[in-house]
Structure formats: structure tokens, C-alpha cells
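Example 3.2
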Amino acid sequence: MKNTKIISGFPAIGKSYLTQNTELVVLDSDSSNFSWIREGERHPDFPNNYIQHIQQNIGKADYILVSSHDIVRKALQENQIEYVLIYPSKNLKNEYLERYRNRGSDEKFISFIDSNWDAFIDDIENESFPRLLKLESGEFLEDVLMS
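Structure, written as C-alpha cells:
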């Protein structure tokens, strides 16, 4: 059985890249696969179905990469699932907006992050349950996990 680590990662820290470029067993658990029944219709069991998925995979992967949405973080805490929350330094807004453009995110998403950047980072930095790990300019998830 593996000693699975749960990583809650802010968008564009390199979760998908790590999953595709490592020998480790990494499960990239996109919350959108659990939060929607179909476009515009939320799944009534979210986030409980997502937490159940995470719990079922503990011991099977080296890392489980999960959403950094506040509802997911709250559910992780309520279920006493230890995790590391990895997020960018607040002064990296422009760098991250460029990352979203480079990876092909739609403008609606980019605008949403742009409008809520400070609030999202402030909310994360006020967290007390997870271990927080802040990325600096040019850093990605792979850099901090493999160092």
C-alpha cells in the first residue's frame, strides 16, 4: 500500500503536466467530473461523491491531485483528510493569467480568476487545516514535489 499524499492545487500549477510526466502513480482528480451531472446541472452529492472517490484511492497512488475550490477544502477538513494546499504567490496574478491563456483556458474562466484573484489567495492564506505551500515566479508543482 502506498503512502498517498493529497495535493490541493490552484489552477495552472502543473497538475496535469505532473500526471503525464512522472514515473510516480499520480491521480489527477478533476472535481468537474464529480460536481456536474451535465452542463448547467450540479450533482446533488457533490462534494461528498468527490471525497468518497479520494478516500477510495488513498493507498493506491503516490499523489492524488484535487481541486482547490473552497467547498472541496472544507470537505477535506470535515473528513480529516490531511492535504497540502499549493498555490501561487499573490503577486503572480499576471503570470498565472498568461498560463491560463497558454494552456487554452476560455476567456470566461480567465476573467473569473482575474476578478477574484485577491479574494482566492487571501482565502487560501487564511486556511489553518492544510499545510500551505506557496509557489514563486516560474515554479510549478513538479519543482516543489521533486526537490
